[in-house]
Amino acid sequence: MTEPRPLRVVIADDQAMIRYGLRMICDDADDLEVVGEAGDGQAAIAQVRRTHPDVVLMDVRMPNLDGIQAIAAILADPTLGSPACLVLTTFDDEDYLAGALAAGASGFLLKDADPESLLVAIRRVAAGDSVLDPAVTARVVSGYVAQRRVRDDRIGLLSAREIEVLRAVADGLSNVDVGLRLYCSEATVKSHVRSMLTKLQMSNRVQLVIFAYESRLIST
Q1: Residue 95 φ/ψ, nearest 5 degrees
Q2: What's domain 7-131's architecture?
Q3: Could you report the per-residue pLDDT of 72-110, keeping only the tens digit for each?
């Protein structure tokens, strides 16, 4: 049996020491391969174009082009394969985070997270999950929605079961954990998520989380 190829990762951060540390963590994992590094958003786009990674670890505060603009550019270009973009952040980056999530990031990871949490996050976003710290998400997304002054009333497009799945996704649960909460299989959860994305014309789970706040399913 042919072994699955390693997940290809690009690391984008303007601090060389952070890039070095992230590379060391990834290199210690048999199922990950760092295929490129970048010190700013423009270089990150170039690395994605060159290497076609599965996951991009993206800092938000970088020179020349910040991480938000880089994510938007990467995900808007169909030739780049729509890699999962995982934002690396600190607690004082809330304004940046809202923009990154709206641009299509698959989630965020705090820079003080332990190595195992980083590896789990990379694998989760590569598998189509989102990685969202519920405490930080509540502040970031609710503030973003309040600034937009938008109420999204498309909730009527979803079934009662899909709404249950949406609430669980908005709580930051993985597909496996959603299934455990709702007593259904991971495959069933994935089917509901795909259905919601299609009905709402969205591209990823993070947009579903923002929708949950905009439709007042989740409040702080």
Answers
A1: -65, -40
A2: 3-Layer(aba) Sandwich (3.40)
A3: 999 999 999 999 999 988 766 677 777 787 788 998 888
